[in-house]
Amino acid sequence: MTAPPTTDGIWTQLSSDLRRFIRRRVSDAHVAGDLLQETFVGVHRNLGALQKADRVTAWVYRIARNVIHDHHRQATNSAVALADADPVDLGL
């Protein structure tokens, strides 16, 4: 019987590849780093719910895809909100 995966172990095994995966999907390296951290917060919080330890890599990448998707959705919603805002009268 193998030990269940740990957040540290998953980080050691996947963080470099996962950083590249995220970086290919967002244009800013700092944002990619933030999304990587957010992914591992999700991993840490939900590690107890992982049912198939042999599928940990697929599970982590699913979390990363969801984090990236949420990031793009929030960015789009912010842009739409700004586009819908009334123009500011500067009195010029």
Description:
- 15% of the residues are buried.
- The protein is mostly helical.
- It has helices spanning 7-23, 29-46, 56-84.
- The protein is built from three helices and no strands.
- Helix content is 70%, strand content 0%.
Write down the secondary-structure element order: HHH
DSSP helical segment count? 3
Q: What is the averaged pLDDT score? A: 88
**How much beta, percentage-wise?**
under 5%
- Report the radius of gyration as a whole number of Å: 18 Å
The largest β sheet comes out as: none
Output the structural class: mainly alpha
Q: Helix content range of the residues, please?
A: 55-70%
Uncertain regions spanning at least 5 consecutive residues: none
Give the termini distance in whole angstroms.
74 Å
Count all strands and give the number.
0
Instruction: Name the shape in a single word.
Output: elongated
Topology of this structure?
Layout lengths: L6 H17 L5 H18 L9 H29 L8
Helix pairs in contact: 1-2, 1-3, 2-3
Index terms:
elongated; 92 residues; 0% strand; 70% helix; 3 helices; mainly alpha
Question: What's the short version?
Answer:
The chain is mainly α and 92 residues long. The chain is 70% helix and 0% strand.
